[in-house]
Design goal:
The chain is mainly beta. The strands form two sheets. Strands 3-4-5-6-7-8-9-10 form an eight-stranded antiparallel barrel. Strands 1-2 form a two-stranded antiparallel sheet. The chain is globular. The two termini are 30 Å apart.
Length: 155
């Protein structure tokens, strides 16, 4: 059962990696804003948005993620204020299909990407208002036709 779960997760992550290869990278230059007294240059790379401090990220997020070997992975993630999480996954159309796990949340330096760590397993998500976006194994958003299928919405 554990081998099957690891195989399904590996296939799922590889699928995400393949989909992410179609991602287009955008490069932003500095933004200049003029007011009546001075010119202010704002560079978004210098001032990252810190979701950890600005949004109410604590709560439960749900959605069905794509699965290479099943109908989908119904996923429920609860993020707790003490930087812990609970995750429940159900592999739809699979006999041994329900798994529960818990662990700790690690924040990246921008405060907008989290890594959920539990033992040997880890998952990366980008937090935005009322949603978690599942990231590929390199921590990048999955782009292309299936992009919207990697979003978990806050309940």
């Amino acid at each position: 059962m554990i081998k099957k779960r690891k195989t399904s997760i590996s296939v799922f992550l590889m699928m995400g990696l393949l989909v992410s290869c179609t991602q287009n990278e955008k490069k932003n230059g500095p933004e200049t804003k003029k007011d009546s007294t001075s010119t202010v240059v704002k560079n978004s790379a210098q001032e990252p948005e810190n979701v950890k401090n600005s949004l109410n990220w604590v709560g439960t997020y749900e959605g069905t993620l794509p699965c290479a070997s099943c109908e989908g992975i119904k996923t429920t993630i609860t993020l707790n204020k003490d930087n812990t999480f609970n995750i429940a996954t159900e592999y739809l159309g699979d006999k041994d299909n329900k798994f529960n796990d818990k662990g700790v949340i690690e924040w990246d330096s921008t405060g907008s990407v989290i890594t959920l760590k539990s033992g040997q397993e880890s998952w990366k998500y980008k937090l935005s208002e009322n949603q978690l976006v599942h990231l590929d194994i390199d921590g990048k958003e999955i782009d292309g036709k299936m992009k919207s299928m990697y979003i978990l919405m806050k309940k």
